[in-house]
């Protein structure tokens, strides 16, 4: 840590999430209060939601729903598991979860990076709009449903209906895919995709440990982009 | 009989059209047979429904005395969001502008709505597709809709908003999502929604990261945390099970509940959905009010009613039944210039007529309101249209005050169900007021 940075400790056994978030929301760009350590999260909801400053928040334990929701700029590190909607609608910054995460991780997120150390539940990356999600484990069913933009990289397996009704997001999966959703197809891995995947490995700090050629790429067949009666059986 | 004299022709009946297979039904069968696809259109239910027209005010008489129409004050202000929000919204009139998206409407149309509403001290509402500068810049009070698609959703806009409306459903299509056809996905609309230009854009029917009232409670907690508990949070539901939906919205932590009846408009949905799913506004109001009363939350959690509100009488009736405010959408568009007979030749060219045009999703609106076409858009001057909306809102307010004074009320919120009777048994049952000339409330009191 830079000598000029200031570290804060926050114990959620004695203070409320409201007090924590109010303190974090009061931070401005250029703050030197750049490291916040949060103890005893105990699955509480909306921890570090709505941040908009280049700070690092380290949470020591499991968090509930919507941790890091709508994050901008901040780096949020969770040393535990996370509940529903971690980093939902994130705009920028980074959210990193050491353990497993529940449903709808990174839902509708527009930007930033979401790194998941364990598995993700159903609908990981649902309606994602530009975020880069890396899941070191596997993802549940309906992941990347209606995914619009960004990348979802899965080191393990994907559940049923991956990428259902997908738009322009790019999906990379190393393991098996139980089934593809409507309008989602396997696509050719070209050099640009291998390069992109390598960048995602770097984002997750595992470059050199994995081989991009072990992954398959999935994306939109773009056959449902215009509603047509001939596609009725796909709906 | 002389064989040369012709027998008179036997009398014949007139051609008889079927009430079941009427002309519209037949045209729809032929349309479906020719195309193989259901009909999509804008607006709300067009069928004849029990509505506020079926209620009458009793006015003052021997037992009540009225207020002087031009001298005694009759308040119209309303405060929304008093339950939890640090900064409730204070409106001068109890008529708000309902959520309508940039995308379905043009930028100038959104600006006009903002200008008109602001001139009258009331709020406008965003829609699917995010917040535009036209809208924020011209709306002194802006409600930001939080929709399943989350198109254009970002925390900066949430913080710029004066309130947040979590949309669970809308009256035209409870349980339905939407689709904006490619013709309206202009480069600007596409960018705001993070989609390729020109494709048909689907709007989800369920929120991506919560399911049910228990989750919604946590979602609302998150939204409050993100906005530091400043903004009122509304929950909007399509009228289907208004008693339970209102109760569950209260349980989930709403400051304001918005109940939208089936006459409430949509930008684009299947005709069969609009006309056959959901219940009329009239049937929803008392159910929603009863839920609030049963929970001891009436007037603590505010109720906004929408769907087919057209004039000050409708406003007064909704308030008398227990609503705190109403919202208008279709009527506001008409005030701007939608379906104006001056464009009749162009409506005819589109195969319709002024007053019936509802193919808003096709983006060819002669009035330049429901379009993204640069040339058509120019037809709407936002300043003039905004002035027209302000005039209309002013008339509605004056009308509601006129009725309230006649009933002896010094504030429109003092109107009450006891001021009303119903013209039909259906309306009496739905509104829980007596059939006119009787003391009979169907389902509640014994006899006449």
UniProtKB/TrEMBL annotation, chain A:
Stored InterPro entries: Glu_synth_asu_C_sf, Glu_synth_lsu_3
Originating gene: fwdC
Gene3D superfamilies reported for this sequence: Glutamate synthase, alpha subunit, C-terminal domain (2.160.20.60)
Protein name (Swiss-Prot/TrEMBL): Protein glxC
Source organism superkingdom: Bacteria
Species: Methylopila turkensis
Molecular function as annotated in GO: oxidoreductase activity
PANTHER family: TUNGSTEN FORMYLMETHANOFURAN DEHYDROGENASE, SUBUNIT C (FWDC) (PTHR39673), TUNGSTEN-CONTAINING FORMYLMETHANOFURAN DEHYDROGENASE 2 SUBUNIT C (PTHR39673:SF5)
Automatic annotation (TrEMBL), chain B:
One example GO MF annotation: glutamate synthase activity
GO biological process: glutamate biosynthetic process
Domain Glutamate synthase, residue spans: 84-337, 361-409
Composition bias type Low complexity, residue spans: 116-126
Transmembrane regions: none
Region annotation (Disordered) ranges: 113-134
Superkingdom, taxonomy of origin: Bacteria
The keyword Oxidoreductase appears for this protein: yes
One Pfam family matching this protein: Glu_synthase
Keywords, sorted A to Z: Oxidoreductase
UniProt similarity note: Belongs to the glutamate synthase family.
Annotated protein name in UniProt: FMN-binding glutamate synthase family protein
Organism per entry: Methylopila turkensis
